[in-house]
Design brief:
This protein is of the alpha+beta class. It has a domain of 113 residues: Alpha-Beta Plaits, CATH 3.30.70. It has six helices and five strands, in the order H-H-E-H-E-E-H-E-E-H-H. The strands form two sheets. It has a three-stranded antiparallel β-sheet with strand order 2-3-5. Strands 1-4 form a two-stranded antiparallel sheet. The N and C termini lie far apart (68 Å). Bound molecules: iron/sulfur cluster (2 copies). One iron/sulfur cluster binds next to helix 3. One iron/sulfur cluster (SF4) binds next to helix 4. It catalyses: a quinone + NADH + 5 H(+)(in) = a quinol + NAD(+) + 4 H(+)(out).
Amino acid sequence: MQTLTNRAKPVDRRPMTVLEKLYLPAIAKGMGITLKHFFKKKVTIQYPEEKRPFSPVFRGLHILNRDEEGRERCTACGLCAVACPAEAITMEAAERMEGEENLYREEKYAAKYEINMLRCIFCGLCEEACPKDAIYLSETFAPANFKREGFIYGKNDLLIPDPKKEPEQYQKALGSRVKKS
Ligand code: SF4
Ligand code: SF4
């Protein structure tokens, strides 16, 4: 029969010799292969002690960004929610009151902002749609949870630490992928 590729290997159906019946050469050959792998570079990673570096295009958990003065950048325009193909984002807008200029950058802000991580496909379209550089996908991922509600991330979970009050945590959360404000 004509084969489609040249990879077909004919089966050797000759009766086994005495030496072959002892299986010793086959065992020695197998042990040789195992021994060879002892001296090769290990491909396994000892997680969680050792962590594999993320790809530069990795898209992880969202961050709601602040400006350099610590004010929330999001103006609750809703563009991210409209751009989201999974309809994972919901928000409620509120008007900034007098005296709140140090909290919110724009006259309108998101009083409530939620992302359902069970719906999110981490496509990054929300980040691309945002005109205020207010949302980024970071280099971390949503931790496992036993409850569905645990995957609904509210504003408090998403908001980056205040750069004035917690500069170290802010820098850590910012990571290398997130644009600086
Ligand atoms: S990453 Fe994609 S799916 Fe997830 S919230 Fe943003 S736009 Fe929606
Ligand atoms: S994150 Fe950006 S796109 Fe989404 S509501 Fe806020 S300002 Fe608008």
